[in-house]
Amino acid sequence: MLSGSRHALNQIDCTSLTIGDTQIVSQTAVKDLGVYLDSALTMQKHISFVCKCAFFELRKISSVKSFLTLQATVQLVSSLILSRLDYCNSLLAGLPIEELDRLQRVQNSAARLILQKSKKDHVTPLLTTLHWLPMKYIIEYKLALLGYRCFEKSLPPYLSHSLSIYEPSRSLRSSSEKLLRIPKTRTKTFGERTFRYQIPTVWNSLPSSIRDSSSLSSFKTQLKTYLFRKAFA
Predict the structure, then answer these.
(1) Per-domain residue ranges for the chain?
(2) CA 78, 210, 95, 228 torsion: positive or negative?
(3) 130: closest CA among 215, 70, 47, 45?
(4) Nearest by Cα to 182 from 208, 201, 162, 205
(5) How confident is the model over 41-68, as pLDDT tens digits?
(6) Spatial CA neighbour of 113 closest among 162, 160, 78, 164
(7) 107 vs 15, which has greater pLDDT?
């Protein structure tokens, strides 16, 4: 699969590649470690796949809901639906909001199923009752954790090598604020969607009191509280 902007891909006339006696045909999308990647990195195929599987599982749970306790329903939804929404969702950072809204509709349906509410009921009180962050903020949570791990030096090399701690050329107040350097980018898809841009952007936006957390558990608690208030303020 060739990856790039639609404009760049249209300039390339390459439908196959021959290595030795083997011809490799170019694909518009491939599946790697359970994630569908398309040539323009829109993630549309992956989101469609996740939504299709999640709604299928929701219908199955709904058909036996009358025989389930609340706890059993929560466990089934968590293992069969929320796990799909959670898997590798940091790759979706920077996508257009309409794409994330497709996943949000899945989460909304799951909340209504658990709490036995109809489509007419407003979903915000349901998410707050279940203490679920909306999809947009779950992704921010994941990225912020990677930012924290950068300062703990516990990131894998392929990530840590792409991030750098902000060090001003002269002594400033920001020198001691544990900030990451945000790189300059030219494109939204292949620049602002990268981890090297998204992680510092989310991390630097956090209050300094959260960035200065003394432990990972404390950071997670403060971060979720902060994002919860931000989502439902």
Answers:
(1) 1-40, 41-132, 138-232
(2) positive
(3) 70
(4) 201
(5) 899 999 999 999 999 999 999 999 999 9
(6) 78
(7) 107
Strand partners, 32: 35
DSSP the chain: ---S-HHHHHT---SEEEETTEEEE--SEEEETTEEEETT---HHHHHHHHHHHHHHHHHHHHTGGGS-HHHHHHHHIIIIIHHHHTTGGGGTT--HHHHHHHHHHHHHHHHHHTT--TTS-SHHHHHHHTPPPHHHHHHHHHHHHHHHHHTT-S-HHHHTT--B---SS--GGGGS--BPPPP-S-TTTTTTSHHHHHHHHHHTS-HHHHT-SSHHHHHHHHHHHHHHHHH-
pLDDT tens for each residue of 110-125 = 999 999 999 999 999 9
The pTM of this model reads 0.88
